[in-house]
Amino acid sequence: MIVLLGTFLLVPVLMALWVSLSDWTGRGSPFAPGVSFVGADNYGDLLAGGGLQERDFGISLRNNAWYVLLVVPIQTAISLFLALLVNQQVLKGRGFFRTAFYFPSVTSTVAITVLWLFLFSSSGAVNQVLSVVGINGPNWFADPNGVVHNFLGLFGVTNGPAFLTDNSFLSVSWWEWLAGPSVALSAFVIMAVFTTSGTFMLLFLAALQNISPEVQEAAMVDGANAWERFWRVTLPQLRPAVFTVVTLGLIGAWQVFDQIYTGTQGQPGKTTVTPAYLSYTAAFQSQDWPRGAAIAFVLFAIIIVMTIIQRWVLRDRKVSRRRMLIVPRAGAIAGTVPGIGVTGDRKKEEER
């Protein structure tokens, strides 16, 4: 297994890393004598070059950051809600609903994208439904305006303050960073939530079925209502599942490519360009293989950093002595319920 992984995973990754540090033109071997080592020049052009390459990369990061910011929390919340719904014993036809919610996840991404292009066209079903309630729907996949800017425009705010318009990051002004996802990208956000919530629902459902009913019964005996049982009992025990769902959601959201390639190809106005798609166009269309590889490794670093941050946020925290003194009865109940242990120090504290 180590030999297989090394041959088909590690070696190509190391080759791509070398390409990102070289001036390889895509012809011949990247290890040929004519290929020179240029160090971090390709990364410098992306992150501090000041030209079109830096701006395109900044725009792609802006687009993808808003995509992640919206998709990951929404799909996590909806998948948890669906799991709680189909986990109810009183729900009739649970097997049907589980299959129905999961079905979009096994459908081809290309097919879903084509369907979305039809539904969200200017005369599509979505705008037809909106017209029924008196809303004039936008031309979704042809509107490059950010939804935040559109919202501010309702109040007459069309230009940002000088400290936002005059300062920039990656050649993109902070006013543009705060524009929000474009109307076109918003349709992709809805599609991502629609297609991935079913998969994560199954992960939450498996975790919910591993929670002992006696834990819920103990909380009910203690006088906890339904919301308190969910917030104080169920959700803490779902921490590993939440970590898995958020991690997979982050990785998938930062690597979005299929929808963009088959849908808009970065248009309108580059507002649906993502780093993954930009890496593809740089390498396979512009034949700038070092820049494409550099974008891929910057994206890899972003995913690693985001995963570490969310791992730190969702880490297990020790219960303080002050909190144990405030809620001693919870510790006593936990000591009597199978599956919830009480440490020796906590037992001594409760006895004291």
**Could you list the spans in which at least 5 consecutive residues all have pLDDT below 50?**
328-344
Number of strands: 2
Strand order of the largest sheet: 1-2
Mean residue pLDDT: 86
Q: Look at the structure and give the CATH class of the largest domain.
A: Mainly Alpha
Strand content: under 5%
Summarize the amount of helix as a percent range: 55-70%
Descriptive overview:
The chain crosses the membrane at residues 65-87, 99-119, 183-208, 238-257, 293-314. InterPro entries: ABC_transporter_permease, MetI-like, MetI-like_sf. Residues 61-310 form the ABC transmembrane type-1 domain. By secondary structure, the chain is mostly helical. The chain folds into two domains: 45-313, MetI-like fold (Orthogonal Bundle), CATH 1.10.3720; 322-351, no CATH class. 67% of the residues lie in helices and 1% in strands. It is built from 19 helices and two strands. The protein has helices at 2-20, 41-48, 52-86, 94-106, 109-119, 125-132, 147-153, 162-165, 174-177, 183-209, 213-221, 226-237, 239-254, 258-262, 275-285, 289-313, 321-326, 328-336, 344-351, and strands at 168-169, 172-173. Strands 1-2 form a two-stranded antiparallel sheet. Helix 2 packs across helix 3 (52-86). The protein starts with a helix and ends with a helix.
